[in-house]
Amino acid sequence: MGLLQEIKVPLIAVNDTSLTVVEISHANGDHVQKGTTVMVFETSKTTYNVEAEVDGFINYLCEVGSDYEVNDIVARIFSGKEEADTATIPPAELQPPAVHHQNGQTIAAAWTGITIFSNGAKKLMEESKLNTEAFAGRDFVNLTDVESLLGIRKTPAAPKTAAAKQVSAKEQELPVPANSTKVKLTGSKKREIEYLGKVQSTGLTSTINTHVETDGIFIHINNALAVLKNSLLPVIVYETSRLLKIYPLLNGYFSGDSIILYNDVNIGFAIDIDKGLKVLNVRNADTKQLSIIENEIVDLSTKYLDDKLAVEELTEISFTITDLSGEDVSFFRPLVNMQNSAILGVSSIDQKLQRLYLSMSFDHRVTEGKLVAQFLKDLKNRLESYRGNGGKTLTSTITCFKCAKRLSEDLSDTGFAKVLTPSGEEAYICQSCFKGF
Amino acid sequence: MNNTLNFNDVNHKLLKTALRIRTVEEKFLQLFSEGKLNGTVHTCVGQEFSAIAFAGQLKKRDFIFSNHRCHGHYIAFTGDVRGLLAELLGKKSGTCGGIGSSQHLCHNNFYSNGIQGGIVPVAAGYALANKLKKANAVGVVFIGDGTLGEGALYETMNIISKWEIPLLIVCENNFYAQSTAQKTNLAGDILSRPEAFGIKTWKGDTWNPDQLMKTAAEAIDYVREGVKPGFFLVETYRLNAHSKGDDDRDTEEVKAYTERDYINQFKRDSLSYYNNYHGTITEEIDGLVTEILAEEELPIQDYFEVQDEVKNDRWQQIEPIAKRQVELLNQFFKEQIVNDDRMVFLGEDILSPYGGAFKVARDLSFLKPDRVFSTPISEAAITGIANGLALNGLKPIAEIMFGDFITLAFDQIVNHASKFHHMFNKKIKCPVVVRTPMGGNRGYGPTHSQTLDKFLIGIDNVKTVALNTFIDPGIVYKSIYREEHPVVVIENKVDYGKKILHNALKNYRYERSESDFPVVRISPAISEPTLTIVAYGGMADMVAGILEQIFIETDHKAELIVPTLISQLPIDVIKESASRTGSLVVIEEGSPVGGIGSELIASIMESSDHYIKAKRIASLPVPIPSVKSLENIVLPDKNRIIREIAENFN
Ligand SMILES: Cc1ncc(C[n+]2csc(CCOP(=O)(O)OP(=O)(O)O)c2C)c(N)n1
Q1: Please, which residues bridge with residue A363 across strands?
Q2: What is the mean predicted confidence (pLDDT) over B367-392?
Q3: Which terminus has fewer CB within 10 Å in chain B: N or C?
Q4: With an 8 Å Cβ cutoff, are B507 and A113 in contact?
Q5: Cα–Cα distance between A48 and A161 in angstroms, integer?
Q6: Could you tell me if the CB of B174 is within 6 A of ligand 1?
């Protein structure tokens, strides 16, 4: 008899310190079966179903439409119905937030990155139905850590039970005037406001526009693309990601009294077709070839339409591109996302003038107009270089299939040779690998 | 055999010098038989005029390299009889404090070493430095006829001819090498050898000293004025044993040469002069010996100082650099060669546009054509010449194209660069840098893939550095460049193409110590580590890349420590970590027996109070196969590393 499972608000993305409950699937005291969905959260990016990990009787500590902080307990599953019916925690009994213990030492809740679990840890967690959230704030969790938490090892386990506390709305409400209807914001809209507000509300963002000549641009690009013919997005992601390596300030964000620069270039592209506005992540785009980038854009978009996106595909975006070229847009001012220092907007091609506008909004606390203008100029030149360049190959995409050296990094000045690999594929080879030593 | 002798005034002076050399040599033999002389002596009795003709006719700014039979050369060039006597008697006031003794002398541009052949490229490097400095100085290197069997000689003759290096090779042909008569060992003839390299030759003998003096002067002038090499063959005969009692030569033959000997003829013809001269010299030498015998020997503290351990008190976070290692290396050398006239870069195939097999030397020869030397395939000579350049005040960087070939340079590293400073009792320094790429994973097979670092640690006074992909190689090379003693740098073929900290894992901290040869430490972001891994060179990058995988599969939160200076491992840092984790793995790309792992674990064990479980992971002890599937198995690959950690530490 007793408590079988506590359901806590999961940490799904680093930015989401609170989540909205959008669905409660049962009534208090209902019997739930292992594996059934008991409730649904909405994050800024996606929805998240919580399943029962045991058979038992459920008791909710939350309500639909409210936001709860990560690690708050929002429901509990008991072995007996009576407990589930009667269990309530009055707000006065709320306990202080959790502190993680390890080897008797308190670890400052400094780690906000992902938690990596060893296979041994995962196995025991599965066996003992332990949630990964139990280890939020840790960098690594191994078997010993899990055993400690379960009390199998004699190290103090983390005392945990902060109960659900509603996160209150921030904006002060004014009375609703007559002849008007009040429509409650959805959780995702609220978070969108929070995200965009973070950077924009300082009033220190600005936008710079430039145009790109597009005459003949698709002749070469379409050759290189398999599916997304007549789309500039893959090439823009490709070139932007490489340029960001040269302009690290645009691949970071403002924080406190510092500027944080991302090591990786993870390009997010915004998408909004029926399923709401989402930004999908092409990870390490700077290391990927054009065809791979194209594949990923297609893949991610398909997953978006099928509601199959994983959290990693929506998070850790270091730079955002919003492509409205399909919307017949002349030009627009994109808004900088939280934890980004800039965003690139792509407008539609003016078919008469054969040109399109690129707009870049940026956080003035991180950089300034001159740098952004230079970035845009570089990007423009790179994009325009795809126009009728006499059939020259895109050198930046060529790498030696043996040592992965890029043609642009070749020091020999001889260039690469085209070869058939042992498996019969066409590839390039650098002269060192070709001739040997 | 009899020539008419005319002992005029001029050669009385000559005779007195020769007699002085002979008297010193005979004194040594006497002291030796009395047990007052430690070790050995090789006397030049019978060959004295060769020493006087060359060593005696050089200028002060010129130089000499000599071999085991060097006393005559030394006295003729430096006049320092007292220093020589004290040296062989093992006294502190000896020319090298008694460290070098008979075969290892160093004084005012005079150097000798007991390794046959090895001094020839060193002399060439010394001469090249003079040429680069436009010093108008020449040098003589003495070899015996037996040394015509050494390969380093031919590598050097090729180069001095091609590069027009002002060096005179003097071959003292006494027809024997130790116990072996020349006809047993020497094919063909002697002079056609240098002639084949286009080197001008001369010939003389010690039975006609006047003529020898004249021809020698002519040869020296030719080398000085023409700034060209020369080869002088001197026929002579040693009247005593090779060293002490080891003489199996025909007594009749020895007797005939004893009679023919110029000094002996003088003694026969002008006994009163002889007695007069000999008496004075003997008296002088006896006086010196009595005085020296009472002197003290060098205390060990003056010779050997315990070197400080590498201490790393301060650590800093590592920042990535978006440039490939090879570019950073090239950038360092470009800046250095432009800004420092002392720098000389030499190696095979290093001229631009080719710029070396791995492009480290790219554009150097465009920037400073007179300081970049593309060499023939001559690893011993490359390294020897670099040693000579270093002894003569320049900063040579020698490239050995593949680490596998460093074995051909081994004599120069171990018997020359390593020894000079101490065996010459710290009178000189040899700040040479030898760099070479090692490592496999490129399918180059048994002789182009090896990691031979274990043969390069434990060489006295030589630092061995292994670059890695976590520290800007420019920073490491700045320290290397500042070193006053030899450094061997092991680079890694696969790492050349990588950027600095190119693939940092998010859940780890990357720090480096602020010492001259930084130690890198990669630790879990907040967790306490449970395993200490040490890897260096190419292995470091590989292991760093699989830390997460090691964790997932073995349950170990590993801390990776990457030493840069592998000849003097950062024992304190490693011990500190291993004491906390209780578990230590050393991963090296060479084979395990007698390797870096063995050395490291032994050092940790002898100084640790804790029990630390230790494990070496290394290549299998077979030549590295070219075929990929087997190469992957022979070299420590990630699957084997993970498996061995799992098997040994759970
Ligand atoms: C590399 C090397 N091999 C062997 C020896 C041992 N060794 C010392 S002297 C000598 C004979 C050298 O003969 P030669 O060059 O003709 O000189 P000589 O003794 O006749 O003056 C030998 C074999 C040595 N010192 N160095």
Answers
A1: A205
A2: 98
A3: N
A4: yes
A5: 22
A6: yes
- In the block, which residue shows the tokens 């030499």? B346
Q: Measuring CA to CA, how many Å separate A426 from each of A398, A417, A418?
A: 12, 11, 7
* A279 sits in which H/E element: strand A278-282
Looking at chain A from residue 412 to 431, which residues have their Cβ under 8 Å from any Cβ of chain B? 412-413
Helix pair angle (A233-246, A369-384), 10° resolution:
130
Query: What is the best residue among B67, B122, B178, B247 to mutate for testing ligand 1's pocket, by most ligand atoms within 8 Å of CB?
Result: B178
Q: Which CATH superfamily is domain A187-391 in?
A: Chloramphenicol acetyltransferase-like domain (3.30.559.10)
* Domain A3-86 bears CATH identifier 3.20.180.20: no
What tokens does A430 get? 């650098």
Residues B527 and B474 in one domain: no
Dist CA B612 CA A244 (whole Å): 46
CA A370 to chain centre: 29
Distances (CA, A) of B103 to B28, B40, B180, B388, B589: 13, 9, 20, 18, 39
Inspect the interface and report whether the beta carbons of A113 and B551 lie closer than 8 Å. Answer: no
Q: Tokens 């349950």 map to which residue?
A: B555
Atom of ligand 1 nearest to the CA of B177: 13
Q: Answer whether residue B434 is part of any domain.
A: yes
Pick the more confident residue, A255 or B144. Answer: B144
CATH number for the domain that contains residue B273: 3.40.50.970
Q: Residue B517: inside a domain, yes or no?
A: yes
Residue-range definition of the domain harbouring residue B595 = 504-648
H helix runs in B525-595, sequence order: 537-545, 547-554, 571-581
Q: How far is the CA of B146 from the centre of ligand 1 (A)?
A: 6
B114 lines ligand 1 (CB under 6 A): yes
Reported as a single tens digit per residue, the pLDDT across A84-104 is 776 654 333 333 333 333 333
Chain B residues touching chain A at CB-CB below 8 Å: 320, 322, 324, 326-327, 330, 353-355, 357-359, 362, 401-402, 442, 444, 448, 497, 504, 506-507, 524-528, 530, 548, 551-557
State whether B508 and B485 are in the same domain. no
Per-residue pLDDT, B642: 97
Beta-carbon-side half-sphere exposure of residue A426 (alpha carbons within 13 Å): 2
Q: Are B125 and B373 in contact (CB under 8 A)?
A: no
pLDDT in tens, B590-605: 999 999 999 999 999 9
Question: Where is the domain boundary, B457, B476, B497?
Answer: B497
Cross-strand partners of A21: A41
C-beta of residue A287 within 8 angstroms of C-beta of residue A293? no
**Tell me: the pLDDT tens digits for A143-195?**
999 988 887 764 433 333 333 545 544 455 677 787 788 887 777 777 778 77
Helix (H, G, I), strand (E, B) or coil at A7: strand
Q: What is the DSSP string of B290-351?
A: HHHHTSPPPPHHHH--PPPPP----EEE---EEEEHHHHHHHHHHHHHHH-TTEEEEEET-S
DSSP 8-state assignment for residue B393? T
Query: Concatenated DSSP letters for B411-480?
Result: HIIIIIIHHHHHHTTTS-----EEEEEE--SSS--TTSS---GGGGSS-TT-EEEE--SSS-HHHHHHHH
User: Residue holding tokens 């003489």?
Assistant: B247
In a domain, B47, yes or no: yes
How far away, in angstroms, is B157 Cα from ligand 1 center? 19
> Given this model, what pLDDT does residue A400 score?
84
Q: What is the predicted pLDDT for the residue at B7?
A: 64
Shared domain for B457 and B590, answered yes or no, is: no
* Tens digit of each residue's pLDDT (9 = 90 or more) over B449-483: 999 999 999 999 999 999 999 999 999 999 999 99
Residues in A closer than 8 angstroms to B548, CB to CB, are: 116
